[in-house]
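Progress narrative, work stream C.
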Amino acid sequence: MRSRVLKTGRPIAAIVVTMFRTSLLLATARVAAIAAFTSMVVLAPRALAAPVASPPAPTFQVLHNDHIGAVGVPAGAYTLTPFGGLTSTQATQRFSRFLQDYDGVLPAPWTLDPATMTFSAGTLGFTIAPAAPGTPASATTPGRRCPGVFQVEHDDRIAGIAFPAGAYQFTSLRSTCSTNMSSFRRLLARPGSTLPAPWSLNAQTGTFSTAAGARFQVKPAA
């Protein structure tokens, strides 16, 4: 059976095959274009999304020259850099607590490396470093540092805690410095070492409190 031939000189079957191939190529190109457009729509938000910025390191203001044990902490702003999963809030709370430490012995398992000013407890902890000038502080030491020092005239004890003779820095947390120093003087002068009600003493921070809350904190002067 002969193939029918159009005036173009080409068999009809050949023309049909060519048209089919052309349609197939157009369909393939259309599918590819749709797929490419879909990929652009899906990927565009990811490409345009702004990177998530890390939260800024907290800054702590030490109001007066201080110390933690034998390690001096001069007055000024400090940047705290937590690591090992410790949060900025936890680092700030820990540093504030360590500044209040009475005898410089940090609560276990915390240790301090004076060379790097790194506080660590196993794999977590934080470092402190002087902040750039003008950096606003997000936290500060509690209370008001009383001027001068309080002199304990002879070795004494209150509630089982030793207060050797010497100079002590005094921080007023409630009421005035003069009122709180007078209270401390009366407590030292009492016979025995038992605190009268409603007084209590936090041995780790040297903080004296009444039923109304914390009143003042003492620790050996540097």
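Work stream C, second folded protein:
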Amino acid sequence: MPPDPIHAAIADHRQAWNAFQVAPEGEDTILANDAMSEALDALLAASCATRPGARALLAHLRWWLAEEAEFAAGYQPAYGRAEARAAELAMLLGAPASGSGGADPIHAVLDAANTAETEHTLACEALDETDDASMRGCNAACERASVARHAMMRTLPATLGGLRALACHYVRWGEAWADDGFLHIARSLAGCEPRLGLTPGSDR
């Protein structure tokens, strides 16, 4: 299995951050800041291909968010995006095993959707339109992502943590289908039983 590309994105961001810390005042600082911002944008747009990669990204984001908390306002909206990505990763990596008692069903479908979306993204990045096998692989990845996405949209979260994980997922992936994401969250809220947290009521 090839190395998870997220590790390179993490290294690039850390290197750019380190360079900014020691850049001389003046134009060098401006250039280093621009490079750091570009590396952060690339990091937040990058996909994790493995769970170890996801854990590495979560650790890196937690470090950066704590390190730059004092300057959060100056990093917006990227700082907020980083918080959302970290929250999503924490939810997914810390989710109970599928089928365990009381587990929120949204975590399993979110995990599957993230995996499928990542595989599709990687397949598109490696696509060779002159190669039939490459085209078939990309089309198959697209189909798997579509199936996983529809399964996710049919599932409503049963806990506050699940709802937050769902919202974080749409912050990351939802630009292309924001309307569907909004409706999914709206359905989740409409189906809640107020007295029982976010467990859907039997009379809904």
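Residues 95-102, 198-204 have pLDDT under 50 and may be disordered. No further action is required on this item.
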